[in-house]
Design goal:
Layout: E1 3-8, H1 12-20, E2 26-31, E3 41-47, E4 53-60, E5 63-65, H2 68-71, E6 77-80, H3 87-94, E7 104-108, H4 115-125, E8 131-136, E9 141-147, E10 151-157, E11 160-166, H5 171-182, H6 184-187, E12 191-194, H7 198-203, H8 207-222, E13 225-226, H9 241-264, H10 276-284, H11 291-296, E14 308-310, E15 316-318, H12 323-326, H13 329-342, H14 348-361, E16 366-367, E17 372-373, H15 387-392
Parallel strand pairs: 1-2, 1-6, 2-5, 3-10, 6-7, 7-8, 11-12
Antiparallel strand pairs: 3-4, 8-11, 9-10, 13-15, 14-15, 16-17
Helix pairs in contact: 3-4, 8-9, 8-13, 13-14
């Protein structure tokens, strides 16, 4: 029997999933604010680093809708494909339509930000007893939207992917039904390894330290603004030592937190709770030992621009509404700061990043008298008030 899979959101991962799921046992629908923009068939170009098309995939949509009541009740799988800071609102938007009479798999292609806490919240709030939660540690492929709702581009799968499933006894089912169908089947690499806990995904460091440290590094070198857009360095191609040193220091703060969690709960499996370079070498099977070179030498990152907007004075500044802030500050560095406080760990670089973010965002993030996170300021899961839950799940 074919299963119903709903993709919620229109990010690059949504455009990638639809074609890759075409030759599977899923009928795929998309829940989106712009259903009129979606083609019945979505295509995906698989390109190499020089832009040569290696293969083209296409997938048919059963339905595109902006009304959750039309497609969520029948869903066996629900996958969120949107910025991290929108996860919690999205889950609460669909929760009352989820069918509680069968097992429903709810997941995301990127597990940053304590995704499991947010799912646990709706499980409790809406008495959902048959939910299986899953998340990838990193987005499995390098991908981007070419034409919204129509086609996308991928440069292939990471060499190795990791994912967490809770309850973990469902991992093999998900691996066979979903994971293999969106990576290894097409690219002959990217098999998914089982990570035993969500805290490893939250504290394995990728976007939340890469983006924030680079933006902070640019601020350190150039200040708040640039006179001309052409003066703005490329985000990765022009990556410098200041940004690399900042990332290293930020990663060291995360390492303090990781080590304390391992010390407190030594019986848990933290195989995939990794620092930046170890995670990069695992994911890409690279031999990189230098942070700067891992970015500068990347064949797929060199065209990425620094997210800037023009202010009322005609100068160019970092876009404070970009996901580099909305996702990676609030659902990355802030969560690490919160856990550090609960574990009584000093995190100097995390503090420095958050004080800088206050300047860019023009808001209060830290209580300057106590140097503690203003946790009530952030719309995070209520489970952030349960540190044992945070660490153990």
């Amino acid at each position: 029997m074919r299963q119903k899979l709903v993709i919620f959101g229109g990010g690059s991962s949504a455009h990638t999933l639809i074609p890759l799921l075409d030759d599977s046992d899923f009928d795929v629908s998309v829940l989106t604010s712009k259903p009129e923009c979606w083609n019945d068939v979505v295509s995906l170009e698989y390109q190499n680093a020089t832009g040569e098309i290696i293969n083209t995939f296409s997938g048919r949509l059963t339905k595109a809708s902006k009304n959750p009541e039309e497609i969520i009740p029948a869903a066996d799988y629900i996958i969120l494909c949107m910025p991290v800071h929108k996860y919690r609102f999205a889950l609460n938007q669909i929760a009352k339509y989820i069918n509680n009479k069968k097992t429903v798999f709810i997941g995301t292609i990127y597990g940053q930000g304590g995704f499991n806490w947010m799912v646990d919240e709706i499980k409790k709030k809406y008495s959902l007893t048959n939910i299986v939660t899953f998340a990838f540690g990193l987005i499995p492929w390098v991908c981007r939207v070419k034409n919204y709702g129509k086609n996308a581009v991928t440069y292939g799968s990471k060499a190795v992917n990791i994912a967490t499933v809770f309850p973990d006894l469902y991992f093999e089912k998900l691996n066979n039904e979903l994971f293999n169908n969106i990576c290894y089947k097409w690219f002959k690499q990217g098999k998914v390894l089982q990570c035993k806990n969500f805290i490893s995904l939250t504290l394995s460091v990728d976007n939340q330290i890469i983006h924030t440290s680079r933006c902070f590094g640019l601020y350190k070198v150039y200040g708040k603004t640039w006179k001309h857009k052409d003066d703005v360095p490329m985000f990765y191609r022009d990556y410098d030592k200041v940004s690399a040193d900042t990332l290293s220091a930020l990663d060291n703060d995360y390492t303090k937190i990781r080590k304390e969690i391992i010390k407190l709960y030594p019986k848990n499996d933290y195989t995939y709770m990794l620092d930046y370079l170890t995670l990069e070498r695992l994911s890409y099977q690279s031999n990189n030992t230098d942070i700067k070179q891992s970015f500068v030498n990347s064949p797929t990152l060199t065209t990425i621009q620094t997210p800037v907007i023009q202010n009322h004075n005609g100068l160019w500044e970092l876009d404070k509404e970009h996901r580099f802030f909305m996702d990676d500050i609030y659902y990355g560095v802030c969560i690490a700061k919160w856990i550090a406080e609960k574990l009584c760990i000093t995190v100097k670089t995390i503090d420095e990043i958050l004080y800088w973010a206050e300047i860019i965002r023009n808001e209060h993030i830290i209580d300057h008298k106590t140097n503690s996170l203003l946790s009530d300021r952030f719309d995070l899961s209520e489970n952030l008030n349960q540190v044992c839950h945070v660490i153990m799940v």
